[in-house]
């Protein structure tokens, strides 16, 4: 039986904070740069994020889905997040995208997220992989964790 892994987007797969800070610095009169067209579409992925997520997609032991909270004040974010997935993973992976402000309602085994709470992460019934924490500082550490999990499954340890 496949284990379900959810991966957050903003500040987990892609660098929301730096983009936000840069936009505020460049246009201080715009209080909510995330409400501007192109903001979500143009978020840069973190180093190793696309490669690690793609590797996880290929593992038959896992069903990997992208679980992201919307910016409800910006209806463009729904479309731009979908287009971001297509840009970085291809159209064939757009079916993996789930946009929900209530992550705790999603059933699964793992949630990779930069936040521990705020959008229902605290109610998630599986294991929270806290991206950016001391244990999971980057995507290499996330990949190593799941590679070890797969190794243990294959050897029965």
Could you tell me the radius of gyration in angstroms?
Answer: 16 Å
CATH-defined architecture:
3-Layer(aba) Sandwich
Strand order of the largest sheet: 3-2-1-4-5
Number of strands: 5
CATH topology: Rossmann fold
Terminal-residue CA separation: 18 Å
User: Helix tally?
Assistant: 4
Low-confidence stretches: none
| Relevant CATH superfamily | HAD superfamily/HAD-like
Oligomer state equals: single chain
Text of the CATH class:
Alpha Beta
Q: What's the pLDDT, averaged over the residues? A: 96
| Largest sheet composition | 5 strands, parallel
Globally, the shape reads elongated
| Share of helix, binned | 25-40%
Order of helices and strands: EHHEHEEEH
Q: What's the number of structural domains?
A: 1
The amount of beta strand, in percent, is 5-15%
Descriptive notes:
This protein has one domain (3-155): HAD superfamily/HAD-like (Rossmann fold, 3-Layer(aba) Sandwich). 33% of the residues lie in helices and 15% in strands. Strand 2, helix 3 and strand 3 form a beta-alpha-beta unit. It is an alpha/beta fold and 157 residues long. The protein is elongated and about 60 Å long. The mean pLDDT is 96.
């Amino acid at each position: 039986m496949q284990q379900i892994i959810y991966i957050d987007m903003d500040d987990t797969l892609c660098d929301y904070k730096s983009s936000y800070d840069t936009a505020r610095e460049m246009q201080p009169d715009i209080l909510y740069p995330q409400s501007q067209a192109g903001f979500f579409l143009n978020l840069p992925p973190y180093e190793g994020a696309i490669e690690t997520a793609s590797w996880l997609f290929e593992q038959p032991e896992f069903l990997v889905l992208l679980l992201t909270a919307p910016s409800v004040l910006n209806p463009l974010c729904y479309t731009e997040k979908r287009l971001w997935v297509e840009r970085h993973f291809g159209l064939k992976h757009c079916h993996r995208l789930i946009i929900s402000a209530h992550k705790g309602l999603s059933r699964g085994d793992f949630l990779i997220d930069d936040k521990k709470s705020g959008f229902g992460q605290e109610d998630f019934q599986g294991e929270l992989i806290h991206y950016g924490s001391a244990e999971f500082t980057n995507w290499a550490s996330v990949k190593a964790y799941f590679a070890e999990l797969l190794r243990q499954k294959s050897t029965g340890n």
